[in-house]
Amino acid sequence: MVGVVPDRVQRAVALLDLRGDEVVLEIGPGPGAAAELVLARHPGVRYVAVDRSATAVARTTARNRAAVDRGRLIVRQGDVTDPDLADTVGGPFDVVLAVNVNVFWTRAACTEASALAALLVPGGALWLVYETPGGDDGRVLDGVRASLAVPGLGAPVVVREGVVAVGARRSRAGW
């Protein structure tokens, strides 16, 4: 049974277009709503959630205790720029998702985007999704585009469907 899932998270999960056998990495899972929704809809998906906040890690783990116990969900405290992140969380990942993680629009977070791109399989997707109250999404779009301007990621795609989402795929040619 899925608990209350905010509309922005439902819209973000819908963008992922999952087949059901992917390995998904979420950055900044907060209370774990996206993990819960994805795992309920797709029994074959494996999910990893990473957050800098110990509180968020505890909330995600508690909300998704059954998935953690079954090994379908791994929750870790950490930062995407940690050079040991891949060793800690595994991978490679088919999809990386972040919802309302401000670092990608408040500054050009190229180091963070490069670290995430390196965790993707060739052709894997990175989705950065934002709820922008008031419809003023220009700053968000400009910031996210600047963050995603890194080697190994293709041109960003913008989707506006109740949220502002910017996605990019890792190039298939490698690095």
From TrEMBL:
UniProt keyword terms in alphabetical order: Methyltransferase, Transferase
GO MF entry, a single one: methyltransferase activity
GO BP of this protein: methylation
Keyword Methyltransferase applies: yes
Superkingdom of origin organism: Bacteria
Domain Methyltransferase type: 25-125
InterPro entries for this protein: Methyltransf_12, SAM-dependent_MTases_sf
Name the UniProt record assigns to this protein: Class I SAM-dependent methyltransferase
